[in-house]
Amino acid sequence: MERPRVVVYAEASVDGCLTVAPDALLLFGNDRWPCPGDASEALAQIRTIHSPQAMLEGSGSFVLPGAASGPPPPVEGDRSRLYEDHLLNDIARRPGFLGWFVVVDGGGRVRWYYTGEPGREAPGSEGWHLLVLTSRSTPPEYLAYLRKEHVPYLVAGSGRVDLEGALRKLRALLGVECVLCTSPGKLGGALLRAGLVHEINVLWLPIVVGATKTPSLFESSDLEPDEWPTKLSLVSCKTFSGGYTWLRYHVDGAVAEGESA
Length: 261
Prior knowledge:
Largest sheet: 9 strands, mixed
CATH superfamily of the largest domain: Dihydrofolate Reductase, subunit A
Number of domains: 2
CATH topology of the largest domain: Dihydrofolate Reductase, subunit A
CATH architecture of the largest domain: 3-Layer(aba) Sandwich
Helix content: 10-25%
Order of helices and strands: EHEEEHEHEHEEE
CATH class of the largest domain: Alpha Beta
Number of strands: 9
Distance between the termini: 18 Å
């Protein structure tokens, strides 16, 4: 079983911050965070280059750390069946289907309004259907809630979501060959530490935040004495009006399973 290529895209301040403050959610913007404007061409080009079949986000893009949504309804009957992968096979055959909007939410934190179901598409994201990555530690009430909302999910790992196992399932069960991760903070750090990232793209914004608790690029545990930084090779560099700079890097030694080095 193979796993897909993982391409990471980030928009960051010169000092590596992803937002302007700890309480500013990544996906919802902020008046103090500049809008890239013409520099959004970078993301469009990345999509053209790689044609990803899945977009990957973490739950922290939707819910602040420590925030808890109301509990879903209690589960009655057999709970064991909830820990089987739940896929709706007709989704990919629907007219206009573009791919999967995949969110890691092993803790069952997010309550979904936009799911990709007819009439529940997020503005500007039509054709992308929600799929949640969970684990065997995800509350059964949340899994039952996802089924009720017609949200497909995959189960990978016994504690935290096993990212490598989840990627393998995306490839084997859904034919996903490339994943574009637009959550480059803690999720990006976890993917990097696990050796799952093949390419990194950073659009540097002409601002400096100067913070210590604000989400930043590739948040992860500190390197151990026998661990080395991840080495990168520059693929390209492009500047845009307004001082925006897009750097594209290949992760040295990263070879997707099934590829030749």
